[in-house]
# Entry
Amino acid sequence: MMSRYFETYADWQADPEGFWRKAAEAIDWFEPPKQIFDPAAGVYGRWFPDAVTNTCHNCLDRHVAAGRADQAALIYDSAMTGTKRSYSYAQALGEVEAIAAVMQSLGVEKGDRVIIYMPMVPEAVFTMLACARIGAIHSVVFGGFAAAELATRIDDSSAKLMVTASCGIEPGRIVDYKPLVDAAIDLAKTKPSRVLMLQRAIRPVELVDGRDVDFASAVAEQKARNAHVHCVPMKATDPLYILYTSGTTGQPKGVVRDNGGHMVALAWSMPNIFGVAPGEVYWAASDIGWVVGHSYIVYGPLLNGNTTILYEGKPVGTPDAGAFWRVISEHGVRAMFTAPTAIRAMRREDPEGKLAGNYDLAALRALFLAGERADTESLKWAERILGKPVIDHWWQTETGWPVAADPLGLGLLPVKHGSSSVPMPGYKVEILDDAGHPVERGQLGNIVVKLPLPPGCLATFWNADDRFRKACLDEFPGYYKTADGGFIDEDGYVFIMARTDDIINCAGHRLSTGQMEDVLASHADVAECAVIGVHDDLKGQVPVGLVVLKAGVARETADVSREVVGLVREKIGPVAAFKLAICVKRLPKTRSGKILRGTMQKIADREEWKMPATIEDATVLDEISAALRAHLG
Ligand code: COA
Ligand code: AMP
# Structure
């Protein structure tokens, strides 16, 4: 089939408002948009400023009304507990209404913030939708974050309610949430007044009197009352959720997503990019704590009337590297999304892909990869095992949906390995040099998107318009800075090469090395430090710390290293995957005192590097090189 990509992109370019007006027809509006875009509103303009809608209505009620009541909305498949459960659209709606009623009974109103700190269980998804139903703004926090990170998010959002579970389950260990929740609430300055606690059979906990409410009994009570909660009318521009993501400082950025634009963009992406029709099964193997989980486990598939899969498990070890193939075949998945790390993990355990032979994968149309750079070898491995297209596509928490992709629904374009293919409608992607001038095709530079950003992208950072401007808009006036570096080739294909800031991507998780440095620097014996992202065959990159001890500290360096590793786990959480801190005498710096992190990273990865002309003392690099080789081999 000839791809309709070029004509679709040209349609958008010719008439952006007309394009999104048409896309908006996929959504039920209580008051349809008269104005499509208001350039004067918000930080860079707002989409559908006069429209009124509700995201939960569009995800559930409208499908029930349109005949999908008995179709599975969500299939929960837990490789961790051996549980499988399916919820029809009607059942999902019942669960959501009951949870919404519980939240209302706890005093949650439109505009209030609710922190959701839960593992991959259906109640987490239903709670997100219940928030959307009553107009509360959810902020989901990934289970691998520590108490201090949770506290930062509670404070920044001044959350009224925390919804959590007694534990998460990781291979070989139970992650007790209760102590983390208690510690976070202790640390937080603005304390949520109530905690709604889902008891998991594997690890029930004691509830705190007067604060904690048992999730299951509260929901059962509302069901017994046959509680119905209507969908609160929301302005399209009202926030649906805040999702915190790593920034260049220790303070995470609260990405604010609206209701209307978000729905329009996701509803457009499901058939056109991911190529799935209503009624089909779609699976994003991610976590609801990340943007992929928000957009493509919860909202995108449900908006499109798909069956979404909620998988609690890993690509390997639960029980083996055939876990993903099992889920695809058992549930008839038509399109799947995961991170390249998962493919690397499977390939490492099952290089020949033999386990795939045990399953019928015929229903699958394509596998989508994003979240980090997809190495060509793993991508080709997946292509060979599946005999289906494997599609690298690129986006960020901030954008909420793909910036560049090979759009399966519009018809695939020729594949170029190493590229995330072409910009999607809504995104005019350009490459600028550091001074803001466009570079030639094929030349590396800063990847930017011409403003306005399309519907679905962040409106701002929570309570921090200025920070949003400074971090994303000021450096290249008229553009959104993606903080990714790369190039566009002669055919318009986008190649993402590396971040231009201090963010690293570890196992598809976005981590700030600056934030880890803050933690290392807080250790009493540390004078200065640097954290760099070093290549890792499985996780893409892992953080490595270089630490200089204060003068006069006569302790065993191994002890300090162990302590700072422990400190990062305690302050940021296991997700930081920070396992190595190397004590060194000095750090390499420029004459103006800037630590040469980039040069150290190149040395660590055995990449070619040039002696920086501005280096203060070149001999330091020999010391660093020896230290890195001693630890990394
Ligand atoms: N709750 C609590 N802890 C968690 C967690 C969660 N939801 N998710 C991860 N962790 C912990 C892990 O148990 C691990 O702890 P450890 O140091 O005690 O071993 C630590 O955080 C680091 O996790 P991770 O980097 O994921 O490494 P891993 O060795 O546990 O797993 C993979 C490796 C490849 C199997 C895993 O990273 C994976 O499935 N990746 C897929 C990528 C993905 O889903 N990305 C999401 C964005 S699309
Ligand atoms: P997150 O906000 O956690 O989704 O992380 C977004 C970042 O992940 C991007 O800014 C990129 O650095 C990286 N990323 C996402 N998708 C890709 C991809 N397909 N190729 C290369 N890097 C990617």
Summary: The longest helix spans residues 89-105. The chain is about 30% helix and 25% strand. The radius of gyration is 24 Å.
